[in-house]
Amino acid sequence: MDQRLNLEQLEPNAYKAMYGLVKYLGTTQLTTTHHHLIMVRASQLNGCAFCLDMHTREARAHGETEQRLYLLSAWRETTLFTPEEQAILAMTEEVTFISKHVSAATYQQGVAALGEQYLAQVIMAIVAINAWNRMSIATNKPLPA
To answer: By the 8 A CB rule, do 136 and 55 touch?
Structure first.
């Protein structure tokens, strides 16, 4: 697969703005584990090889288990994820597939498990990774050597 244009070189101010969102997320209460689950699950759903490679490596470096990463796409069929993580994963799936809308049940589960402030931070993380996925996929961003 040939890389297309390089957005970071052609639109550095846009990249800087995106990194601003990433930097903001680092100041929130969002846990590292939750952040990695969001990044990996959305990247799985979007089929973004670059982001999957990067975020699974980062998740492992921060202590995430291989078993949970292997079973993330089947999270509903396991007991490996906490109720909070299940709420986050459900929200990640529905926001990623936004044309189907976020159901009232998923939203209510999110608020009940996480509270409104934390859920807002989760939604911003989901929005961020979906933007990164779309940029990487649209430009065929290659995996690092």
So the answer is: no
The per-residue pLDDT for range 49-83, each reduced to its tens digit, is 999 999 999 999 999 999 999 999 999 999 999 99
Helices (H), 6-115: 7-10, 12-25, 32-46, 49-61, 66-71, 83-96, 104-114
> What is the CA angle 53-56-62, rounded to 5?
140
Q: Which helix (H) or strand (E) holds 125?
A: helix 116-138
Domains delineated in the chain: 26-138 (1.20.1290.10)
Record the tokens describing residue 118, joined without a space. Answer: 């934390």
Token pair 């990433």 is at which residue?
22
Closest CA to 39 of 15, 78, 114, 48: 48
Question: Residue 2: what pLDDT?
Answer: 81
Interval 7-33 mean pLDDT:
96
Closest CA to 102 of 120, 84, 118: 120
- Per-residue model confidence (pLDDT) at position 126: 98
- Output the six-digit token pair for 103: 């159901």
